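[recover] target loaded
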């Protein structure tokens, strides 16, 4: 799980550095914020996964309930943080979504590379 976070952070910072040279500070800030939204979603997933490891492995209903709860928590957090970025913070929409997508790409690629082992 730590590798997922590391890959996400690296991807987000590299894209923010590239954006800084290409589009300036405001674009880099928007990309960083979008990446933080993706990373926070991953942190919630890791936290919920660690809590579920202590559950009885035979209790399928409880695991399914926790799975749905984790999904709802992550979606509410992502929607809330993106709304904050689009609204009150007035970040560049393209940069915000780019940072989020780059962060999610880190999650996907980390899972792909982890399966290869």
């Amino acid at each position: 799980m730590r590798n997922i976070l590391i890959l996400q952070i690296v991807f987000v910072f590299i894209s923010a550095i590239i954006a800084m040279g290409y589009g300036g500070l405001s674009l880099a800030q928007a990309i960083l914020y979008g990446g933080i939204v993706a990373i926070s979603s991953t942190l919630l997933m890791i936290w919920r996964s660690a809590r579920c490891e202590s559950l009885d492995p035979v209790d399928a209903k409880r695991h399914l309930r926790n799975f749905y709860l984790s999904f709802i928590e992550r979606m509410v957090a992502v929607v809330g943080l993106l709304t904050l970025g689009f609204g009150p913070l007035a970040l560049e929409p393209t940069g915000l979504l780019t940072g989020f997508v780059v962060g999610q790409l880190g999650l996907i690629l980390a899972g792909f590379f982890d399966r290869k082992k």
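[recover] notes: The longest helix spans residues 25-53.
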